[in-house]
Structure formats: structure tokens, C-alpha cells
Amino acid sequence: MTEAPVVVRLPGALLRLFPGAEGRVELQASTVSEVMDRLEQRYPGMRARLCDETPAIRRHISVFLDGNRVALDARVPPGAELFVITAISGG
Predict the structure, then answer these.
(1) I need a surface site. Which of 1, 2, 34, 80 has the fewest CB within 10 A?
(2) Which of 60, 59, 34 is nearest to 47 (CA)?
(3) Are 83 and 9 in contact (CB under 8 A)?
(4) pTM of the entire structure?
(5) Is the sign of the CA dihedral 4, 75, 72, 37 positive or negative?
């Protein structure tokens, strides 16, 4: 039996950089890092936009699971919903 997919919500600012990308993506992953890998498989170049070389989530990007900000090593339970948020700056 296949586990429930993880749902990832992507921001519009990111979607504009990847024509054909959708704001709601379902995929199989058990950590945030695996989510990034699966996004990269679907949309080449997306991982580099979301993560730096260390590797870590870029400081202007936030990933939330159940209302809590998480890092790449965070476990993602089946059926969870992740929100990828880009920072908003201004003055």
C-alpha cells in the first residue's frame, strides 16, 4: 500500500520562474530534503532557488509544516501539507 502523498504549496513568485509549475504539487517524500529533490526532478533548477550549497533552505525562503518553520532534515509525515513562502521586503 502506498502512503499518502505530501502536498507542497508553492508561491506565485516561484511559479513564474518555472513555466508549467503548479501551485499545488503532490509527491512522495519523508523529509523536507526529499521534497526538494522531488521538486528538482519535476522542475529542474528549483532546488537551487530554494536551497543553498551548505545545504540549507535559503534565508529568504521559509518552509512551514503544521504552522512551524522547518529545516531540510525535518521529517514529513504522509499526507502532510508543506508551504513554501518567499520573503517579502520593502520599506
Answers:
(1) 1
(2) 34
(3) yes
(4) 0.91
(5) negative
